[in-house]
Specification:
By secondary structure, the protein is of the alpha+beta class. The protein has 18 helices and eight strands. It has two domains: 149 residues, 60s Ribosomal Protein L30, Chain: A (2-Layer Sandwich), CATH 3.30.1330; 245 residues, 2-methylcitrate dehydratase PrpD. The strands form two sheets. The protein has a six-stranded mixed β-sheet with strand order 3-2-4-5-6-7. A two-stranded antiparallel sheet has the order 1-8. Helix 9 packs across helix 13.
Length: 431
């Protein structure tokens, strides 16, 4: 098994819109296609993380509308699961109006599955003649269960679903040194895929600059002399603008990382910007971005795919910082380790309260920390195991952070979701 290729195939792909409501729409579309008739009842059961991430973010091609509940109804009306993580290409503002009518009639309902860790999106549909159910779990596209009229998915299909996520166990056992070796074997196809991601995310940043949001105001600060015109500022403007565009629901795909578009923006554009600023050869920039993707995926195995802590701040910034050190020092494990420790020490407690326009602010903090942490790591300065929850190795630091996320912060997501549910009662289309 080539773990790098598996990560690039399964976690680094184009996505249009926030990947959690996209996942909801995708599960809905799969179930609707399986049902084969208009549903009279539709129940969607979501894990807390998916619910949290989809509540406040605008959906592409919906006329500025938001929410998981609307995403589920759009999937019913536009059952085109073949579009994958770009399923909102099938949406239109007129379709979104029809989806709102389905919700208002009470045809579509949604609930949260308390205590469920990781991705779990369950669509249960009933029609006049048939019933159908689909569950997506473990990743945003992995159908782990399906049935029609009570007949379960064939075992061979379930085995294929398990195989699709089997590489994660192998990735979990890798060391930082192993990952640095893997990217040295990057082939032409992988490089093309990574370059495509750079181009996609740069295009999103260019378009996002036209919005008067976080990226615009950062550039305005630079124009007025409050920010230096340097690699820090240029990278932060790029990542903020691309995130502004996504969170505004614009119908422009970005290349994801760790199955997250915002994490893809940080994991790709930060090492790209720094590499270009310091005239690093293109092939080495490509390898560094591959390493960034690997680290992002690795961190999330321990903290959780949908965690109480911000993935852009932790997983993607760790990946970007390691990539920058790799560009200049290669497989300097001491320097790479210190870069990891520095980011985790800096941003380890940043909370995730769902996808929304405020994610751009967190992306800016992540970008700044990644570059700063990398520079210190390059010079073999950083936080060591003598301080806080930092471990004796990068792997141990990440594992410690995982314990904090999954055990120490176990009450954070339920608390955040409870707050969101309280707000949701007065806005039924924003689930």
């Amino acid at each position: 098994m080539n773990i790098l290729k598996e990560v690039l195939k399964n976690q680094v792909y184009p996505a249009m819109g926030c990947t959690e409501p996209v996942c909801v729409a995708l599960a809905s579309a799969h179930a609707a296609k399986l049902l084969g008739e208009p549903p009279t009842e539709a129940l969607f059961i979501l894990d807390p993380g998916t619910y949290k991430n989809g509540m406040g973010v605008t959906l592409p091609n919906t006329g500025g509308r938001k929410g998981n509940l609307l995403a589920s109804a759009i999937g019913l009306l536009a059952p085109r699961p073949e579009l994958g993580m770009e399923i909102f290409r099938a949406s239109t503002p007129a379709l979104a109006v029809r989806a709102e009518r389905l919700i208002a009639k009470g045809t579509v309902k949604m609930t949260v599955l308390p205590g469920r860790a990781g991705i779990h999106v369950e669509a249960r549909l009933k029609g006049r003649k048939h019933s159908a159910a689909v569950i997506i779990s473990d990743s945003h596209t992995n159908i782990s269960y399906a049935e029609k009229d009570g007949r379960k998915l064939a075992r061979s299909a379930q085995a294929a679903a398990r195989k699709a996520t089997h590489y994660k166990q192998a990735l979990r056992r890798l060391s930082l040194k192993d990952m640095a070796r893997l990217v040295e074997r990057l082939d032409d196809g992988d490089q093309d895929h990574i370059r495509r991601g750079v181009e996609m995310n740069l295009e999103a940043a260019r378009r996002g600059l036209k919005l008067k949001k976080v990226g615009f105001y950062l550039q305005d600060l630079m124009r007025k002399g409050y920010l230096l015109d340097d690699v820090f500022a240029s990278a932060k403007i790029l990542t903020a603008c691309a995130t502004d565009l996504r969170m505004d629901g614009r119908a422009v795909p970005v290349m994801s990382s760790g199955e997250s578009g915002n994490q893809g923006i940080v994991a790709i554009l930060v090492p790209y910007s720094v590499g270009k600023a310091f005239h690093v050869p293109d092939d080495k920039i490509c390898r560094s971005i591959a390493l960034s993707h690997l680290l992002n995926a690795y961190v999330k195995l321990f903290t959780g795919g949908l965690a109480p802590i911000c993935g852009c701040a932790i997983a993607a910034a760790v990946g970007a910082a390691v990539a920058i050190v790799y560009q200049r020092n290669g497989a300097d494990i001491a320097g790479l380790t210190l870069a990891v420790n520095n980011v985790v020490s800096d941003l380890g407690g940043m909370l995730c309260d769902g996808a929304k326009s405020g994610c751009s602010l967190k992306v800016v903090s992540s970008t700044d920390s990644a570059i700063r942490s990398a520079y210190m790591g390059l010079n073999h300065y950083g936080i060591t195991e003598r301080e806080g929850f930092v471990g004796r190795s990068a792997e141990e630091t990440i594992q410690n952070l995982g314990r904090i996320s999954k055990v120490g912060m176990a009450a954070v997501d339920p608390t955040i979701v409870a707050i969101m549910l309280g707000k949701q009662r007065s806005r039924p289309c924003d689930a």
